[in-house]
From TrEMBL:
One of its GO terms (biological process) is glycolipid biosynthetic process. One of its GO terms (cellular component) is plasma membrane. It is found in: Cell inner membrane. It comes from Jezberella montanilacus. This is KDO2-lipid IV(A) lauroyltransferase. The lineage of its organism: Bacteria, Pseudomonadati, Pseudomonadota, Betaproteobacteria, Burkholderiales. Pfam families: Lip_A_acyltrans (PF03279). CDD domains: LPLAT_LABLAT-like (cd07984). Its main location: membrane. GO terms for molecular function: acyltransferase activity. It comes from the Bacteria. Keywords: Acyltransferase, Cell inner membrane, Cell membrane, Membrane, Transferase. The keyword Lipoprotein does not apply.
Amino acid sequence: MIEKLGPIFATAVFRTVAALPLPIAQQIGRFVGWLLWCLPGSYKTRAAENLSRAIPGTTRASIRKAIIPVGQLFFEMPYWWVRRDEQSVNRYVDCDNWTQFQEALALGKGVILLSPHAGCFELLGPVYSSRFQSTVLFRPPRLPWLQAWIVKMRSREKLTMAPANQSGVRTLVKTLKRGNTVGILPDQVPVLGEGVWAPFFGRPAYTMTLVERLQSLTGATIFILGAKRHTKGCGFTILHKRMDEPLSSDPVEAATQMNAEMEAMIRQMPDQYLWGYNRFRQPRAKDDR
């Protein structure tokens, strides 16, 4: 029953929220984020601990300011997942230089986009793919119907979803060898055996080695991206940095380089990072299923 009703219900909810003007959806999200701040919970506790350890001198007000945007993110998400026309997708987003991506793609070796879970990272795929063919890596949920629904909602003419498994990795390699773009959120904890321990805000964090392997196989250019949210419905700015030096061939050094770049991007919007994510946990064992 859930396999049939789940996608219908989820689609109805997303389309209802997506029908709202984005500034109104953001205001509702702020209220939900405020409730998250007021109520006790593991996310709030972990966010306070991680933010305080990462940025010394963090105040209670700073922690509150970092938790409220979580609600905004979830109410912004339907806007980007539902819309398909380029004008609507780009309406609230500003980027000062798309030419740099064209120049990198012209080299024929592909482009790797890396973004932390900061700001409205959900807009990066739809906005970028409104211009360039791309494939985004995602962690599939355990429920088969939910995975199929996510792929259907997020895919579009120039955007393909690749699950975080061996099949998905092969898709990423093929995408890069065709000279196209792949997108990865590298601040997730990979499964045991697919990462190394490297510093992240001064603490050991199990970090994926996939990005270094992809670059060494293809010679792709790496860009660090972030989607910084402005206040009160004033839109977003895409922050970007091209990594001119390739990642080290040593996995630990490469992971350290990558984490340093993630830190630098997060420091440009520290109140918009998902500090409640359990970034410093032990990796889980690989599920062969």
